[in-house]
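Study this protein:
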Amino acid sequence: MKKYLFIIYLFIFQLFFGQDYYPIKTSKKPVKDKYFDTIIVDEYRWLENIGSLETIKWIKAQNKMAQRYLKKTSNKTNSFLSIDKLKNTKYSYAIKKGSYYFNLFYPSLYERPALYYTTDLKRDYEQILEPADISATGVINIKSFEISKNEKYLAVLFGRGGSDWSEIIVIDLPSGKIHSDHIKGVKFSNIAWLGNGFFYATYDQIDKFGVTLNNKVYYHKLGTPQSADKLIFARRNDPFADFEFLTTSDERFFILKEINENKGFINLFYIDYTSQNPVLKPLLYKIKDDIDILDNQNDQFVAVSYKDETNGMIFKFSPQNPKKWHLIAPAYKQSVMLRVIPFNDRIVAVYQSNQQPILVVYDYEGKVLYKLELPHGTSIGGFSGSKNDEELLFYIQSYTIPKVVYKFNIKTFKRKLLKKTGVSFDYKNIVYKNIEYYSKDSTKVPMILVYKKGMKLNGNNPVILKAYGGFGVVSSPYYDPGIVHFINKGGIFAFANIRGGGDKGVQWAIAGKGKNKQNSFDDFIAAAEFLIKHKYTSPDNLAITGASNGGLVVAVAATQRPDLFKVVVPVVAPLDMLRFEKFTVGRFHLDEYGTVNDSLSFKRLLHYSPYHNIKEGVNYPAMLVLTSENDDRVPPFHSYKFVAKLQNNPMQSNPVLLKVEKSAGHYGASNYVGNVRERADVYGFILYHLRKK
């Protein structure tokens, strides 16, 4: 009897502790949808009910298996300890608001960042607000903050549990005393101060993953309840209208931009608070080209436009004659305008061309006063400060170099290193290589490669290929200790600037959106083929990863060409493209992806939707699918359904893992340890499987 008991115990031990991976079989509960003349069967619709006990148990089982597996892969590749060491770099980038410098620091390894301030960068920072001041129990993320013109108050926008839904509180400066003002229901909003109050925006909150509708802009006066806030603007007959707004630096003007992507135009309105009757007036109506007003200068608005689908021009115009534009800086064919910052008698503009940033200083007549071209594979950011400042802060970083912070004088153009950035590795031993390759339709696509000096092209190098390719987003390099860890292990990191992104301008973005979306996927697949053909790697040594729209790109590539890849890691990715528009922000992106309400658009979506293109006779690459339980940008059940279908695939012998981050949203873990753990999971999983032969 003891012998039989031992065998049973041994079997249980091997099943739950000895076995690397076992697919979790998910029950099928078919739901039929009819789109035009096509019937679609969704067998895992029940996983969209995130509150059901069955779904909760299923997620718990997935996380338990993933955590055990990922702990092993992280340990075997030394990923956690290595990434922790590489992440622990020393630099300080301050955000200047008025005469204050603010920064977000981790009070401890397990806490969310707290807000600190100083009035002199030579002095130490003091803590002014920590998440526990807002809630002792909830997971609080400080998102942004704005100082009042008199510098007495700081409005702080924060979220709970990683959600896009936000709240606003007001604190005294410099004491940090929290006022009774508490604004809720805020989403995708900035804060724009005017006098003794500020503007903000809300949406109707239906449920956790309900469609985001009915944008409204309010003005809140300090010391009053939210119920007394003044409604500034709403389109009661159009729930799809969205708004952006600002107050000019002198608080003379309030500018409101109304955006209606479905109808394809924008409206601009303004209030002049120096007029006898300061009411909202139309400025430009039903214009097709996007315009961003930045500030006013000598009674004229300074603005940026992408007129005629160009890469961004700077101009000024009078509110009395809004159709007469005076050009300050033209659009450039090869460079995309990223940011424009107006000062009293200077304009600082940042451009990028194939991941090479360019900083230009103009006067208000358009004369170029200074130009700085930075190396390929770097990015430039920051530029916080007031309009009357002569010095500003900015930073330079790359995939393998953390932020290097400078003070820059816009009059003398002198740069001064603010503080030496310390790293724990030899950054000079890493090289960057820019190449171009041909896509399926013979379009040239740029790609950047990062690897150690002396790398031999023998076809056996482990490679991570990454991309974004959506919404016209210009992908700028940022420091990732996981990439350094991967390179130190002999790997090559590759980033492809595929169509759909904004890296080569507006036309490049248009060529990879809507009816052209397949171009993005073709570009990405062609990048993999190029790396294999030119002996950088092989299918057994190639991993792909991307987040959000980039996660869609890699999931589509994996379902369309599974033979090319060994490992696939989609992060917070939209994966069921037939139901994407039914939840949260999906309706914002009909121009990017399309809609199932149009027959041709439906066919395109069905053609590439990863969830609907899993074939039973295929063993797909090893996959780690990452999502967050509170992601209301891309709801987590996209990942749940995708994983369930893959794990139930009878031919799927490669492991498919699902890791669901608790109390987190679209951007994942927000404390230090959680951030390191997330990276260690990804790079550990990739390295483990690329080494496995």
